[in-house]
Amino acid sequence: MLELHDLTKRYGDRLALDSVSFTVGDGRLTGFVGGNGAGKTTAMRIVLGVLATDSGTVTIDGAAVTATDRRRFGYMPEERGLYPKMRVLEQTVYLARLHGWAPVAARRNAAELLERLGLGERLDDTVESLSLGNQQRAQIAAALVHRPEVLVLDEPFSGLDPMAVETVQSVLSDAAAQGAPVLFSSHQLDVVERLCDDLVIIADGRIRAAGSREALRAEHGSERWELLTTGDAGWVRGVPGVDVVSFDGGWALFEASTESARHAVLAEAVSRGDVVSFGREQTTLAQIFREVVR
Ligand SMILES: Nc1ncnc2c1ncn2[C@@H]1O[C@H](COP(=O)(O)OP(=O)(O)OP(=O)(O)O)[C@@H](O)[C@H]1O
């Protein structure tokens, strides 16, 4: 388990991290979400040891992270760091070799990973000749080729097309399934929502919410209800104690002042025989995000 304890970091007068603490559990895909300048990159750089913290600690399985531990980390920095003139396979193999892999195993693992990431046809191309999206895939291969035990990725999904997002999702899920704690930052709330087990939301250098996706949804659960029918749901407006928030044909989103008012809506819909679904409005990550960063 990777833990950040009470990290504080200033750049001059600017407080970039203010007592930041959170946990990335083993085997958990943890999405790190925050607006521009919220402090994500700063926190990730401190985890990787490329930036010193003013105070606080980073631990792995309860012990302070050492340089030796960090050799088992996989890191995708914000500023992408591949050699532009080097060929894709050659570069990926080179990085595996730097982590101590034997030549044959390094080549096999690099080729397999690049193939999986959709770069099988590009192995002999130079990095600079690749499209930005493909450079991004090569960067992901570079972070993963030594089968790291901990993954920290700064915006791994930026610039990827929807198919590539799916591919990278499955590669990261596999790394987590092997037991690695996986922390990645993203502005793509829909991707984070779909992929993550856990979420950490940061704004202005402070953690605003953290926990499992289910726990955050339950905590920030909506008090609104949704009814979908095959008929016209306009009658919901007339149910006493019900306030319709939005309505479109057979769909109605409403607030009910009492439980019995809500039950009355369901009972009426059932009696009309046209219910497709009825339930609490599903809170999206975008809604939770807006609520906690306010
Ligand atoms: N080297 C630096 N010198 C001065 N201020 C910095 C430096 N690096 C970051 N900052 C400031 O620290 C704050 C946090 O920046 P950071 O890059 O960690 O945010 P971020 O969440 O990664 O943002 P983004 O999503 O835009 O990449 C910002 O206000 C930023 O301007």
Automatic annotation (TrEMBL):
Name of the molecule in the record: ABC transporter ATP-binding protein
* Record-linked SUPFAM superfamilies: P-loop containing nucleoside triphosphate hydrolases (SSF52540)
Q: Which domain of life is it from?
A: Bacteria
Keywords of the record: ATP-binding, Nucleotide-binding, Transport
The record's listing under InterPro entries reads: AAA+_ATPase (IPR003593), ABC_transporter-like_ATP-bd (IPR003439), ABC_transporter-like_CS (IPR017871), DrrA1/2-like_C (IPR025302), P-loop_NTPase (IPR027417)
Query: Does the keyword field hold Transport?
Result: yes
PROSITE patterns recorded for this chain? ABC_TRANSPORTER_1, ABC_TRANSPORTER_2
Could you state a single Gene Ontology molecular function term? ATP hydrolysis activity
PANTHER family in the cross-refs: ABC TRANSPORTER, ATP-BINDING PROTEIN
* Domain ABC transporter: residue ranges: 2-229
Whether DNA-binding counts among this entry's keywords is no
Q: Name the family the entry cites.
A: Belongs to the ABC transporter superfamily.
